[in-house]
Design a protein that fits this description.
Elements lengths: L1 H13 L11 H19 L9 H8 L6 H27 L1 H7 L9 H8 L6 H9 L4
C-alpha cells in the first residue's frame, strides 16, 4: 500500500493536466486511485520501483493495457491536485487585503495569519474564503 501511495503521488505531481473547479488533497487522491489503479499496478507494474517515478512511468507506458477507469481517474485526479497546488500558491496574494484588515498585529509565519483568517471566516471576503477552501486549508 505504501508503494502505491508514493507512486501515485509522484505520478500526480508530474502530470500536466488542465485546471478544475475543485481540488483534492493527496490522501483523497490516493483513495480514489488505489480503488481504480491498484489491480493495474499489481498486473503491469509489479516490478516497477518507486525511485524516479517508476510506477507512474510504468502506468504511462502501459496506458493502452491499463483499465479505462484507472486512466480516466489518473487524469482527473492529476488535474485536481494541480489545481490544489495552484490554489495554495495563490491564496496568500488573494487574501492579502483581508489579512491586513483582520489580522493586524498577528505574527507572520508558522500559519498564524491563516489561523486568524480561519477564525474570522464570517468577516473574510468571498474570494479569500474560496481561495482558502480550494487550497485545502479548511
Amino acid at each position: 500500500m505504501k508503494r502505491l501511495i508514493f507512486a501515485l503521488t509522484a505520478t500526480l505531481l508530474m502530470a500536466n493536466a488542465p485546471a478544475a473547479a475543485q481540488t483534492v488533497g493527496f490522501a483523497e487522491a490516493i483513495k480514489i486511485l488505489s480503488a481504480s489503479c491498484g489491480a493495474d499496478i499489481d498486473k503491469y507494474c509489479k516490478s516497477a520501483t518507486l525511485a524516479d517515478n517508476g510506477i507512474g512511468q510504468c502506468l504511462a507506458q502501459n496506458e493502452a493495457k491499463v483499465s479505462q477507469k484507472c486512466n480516466a481517474d489518473r487524469a482527473v485526479v492529476a488535474s485536481l491536485i494541480q489545481e490544489r497546488l495552484a490554489a495554495q500558491a495563490a491564496a496568500p496574494k488573494i487574501c492579502t487585503n483581508d489579512a491586513r484588515r483582520l489580522c493586524k498585529g498577528v505574527k507572520e509565519g508558522a500559519g498564524h495569519v491563516l489561523r486568524c483568517l480561519l477564525k474570522a471566516q464570517r468577516s473574510v471576503g468571498e474570494k479569500c474564503n474560496t481561495a482558502i477552501d480550494l487550497a485545502g486549508y479548511r
